[in-house]
Amino acid sequence: MAIKTKLNVDPSFPLSSMTDLVFLLLIFFMISATQASPNALRLLLPKSTNTVASKVEVMVAIKHYPETDTYTYHINNQQAVPFSAIEGLLQNYLKDQEEPVISLYVDATIPVKEVVDVMNIAKRNNYKVLLATEPEPE
Length: 138
Prior knowledge:
Elements: H1 16-34, E1 58-65, E2 70-75, E3 80-81, H2 83-94, E4 101-106, H3 112-124, E5 128-131
Parallel strand pairs: 1-4, 4-5
Antiparallel strand pairs: 1-2, 2-3
């Protein structure tokens, strides 16, 4: 009597170990991505809504005049001040605040260097910076 054996090959593959591996890789890349730029300035970017993420104490505006290629700096929508006077004025405005916040209004034509110069003043004095945006059209 001949005994026949049937070879039943199961074509499925257990995916539980594969999902564990993908999950661990996802966690690794999320953690390493947050450590990628430790020297970047920390900005609080508001959403494109009518609400503000933090109480704004001082507004700094940088305006560009393309015809003369000059920039003016305005604090709380007052007269233009020279760049060298901005730090002292901000210190006067924010000296009694526990968590000082600056809202930065910048024309789209302003070079990044001008914006970073103001953000460096905020960083030196431990001020938070909100970069004001307009809502995008729907």
